[in-house]
Amino acid sequence: MAKHDKDATFVGDSRISAKRIPNIAPSYSDFPGKSEPFWPNFLLKEWMVAAVCLVGFLILTVSHPSPLTDKANPNDTSFVPLPDWYFLFLYQLLKYPWASGDWVVLGTIIIPAVAFGAMVLAPWLDKGKERRAKKRPVATGLMLVSLVGIFYLTWAADHEHSLHHSSNQAGGGAVASGDPNFKPDEIWTKQTSCMGCHGNNMEGMVGPNLQKIGSKYSAEEIEGIIKNGKPPGMPAGLIKDEAEIKKLAEYMAGLK
Fold first, then answer.
1. Residues 43-83: pLDDT tens digits?
2. 3 state DSSP class of 217
3. Which of 101, 106, 109, 147 is surrounded by the most beta carbons within 10 Å?
4. Of 179, 237, 233, which is closest to residue 209 (Cα–Cα)?
């Protein structure tokens, strides 16, 4: 009997359900040191570490409350506010001409947005499988540059503030030396806006010592300073009553 070659055609039967293999990420336990799926393996580990850090931070917050300094004094014109330490690098960044003035949008929005956006998108921007730092020069270099920049800007902000405002204390300023036995007249003790800078006994705090101000200025000059202010720290218009200004100026002019 002669053989005849025939093509065999297989037709699927819709009544038989196809065996579907679930889309499960392969196990990387057989390949130590290689890689692992970002979701959920890597992200779950990150969440666990973040939860531990958050609990530790909350414990420190409860056990060591934030220290409060003196109350804000609107008459203290020499006070220079300083942000908390974790914002000092941004505070210092805005002092440079290329990140302030006409370029303030670059320093306040664009640079921080690019930096923090790159940090969030780092797992997708750098897909290298190598874990050794020297094998990933771009990612390692950017990380080192960022750390050095943050540490330097933080140090520069704190150093510059302590260098130019070393005399400022928590209450607003260093107390100048004055006569501890000096007792001012009633016209001075009523001027609470003046006492905030010059002290209860005119001994000087943020502002200068006024216990012998009459040896330097006349009554007319003192009256003009009270009305118009005197740079850099003396504001104008703290006293509105003309008669009271004149009386205070005459009293202060008599302090020789």
1. 888 999 999 999 999 998 888 877 776 667 666 666 677 88
2. coil
3. 106
4. 179
Assign a CATH topology to domain 75-171: Helix Hairpins (1.10.287)
Residue pointed to by tokens 């205070």: 248
Domain-wise residue ranges, the chain: 36-65, 75-171, 186-253
CATH number for the domain whose boundaries are 186-253: 1.10.760.10
Task: Give the closest residue to 255 by CA, choosing from 201, 216, 228.
Answer: 216
Q: What is the pTM of this model?
A: 0.43
* Total H helices, total E strands in the chain: 10, 0
E strand map for the chain: none
- Judge whether 146 and 111 are in contact, CB under 8 Å: no
Q: Which of 226, 228, 232, 229 is nearest to 245 (CA)?
A: 226
Give the C-alpha separation, 146 to 95, whole Å.
Answer: 18
* CA nearest neighbour of 198 among 68, 29, 76: 76
Residue with tokens 């819709």: 14
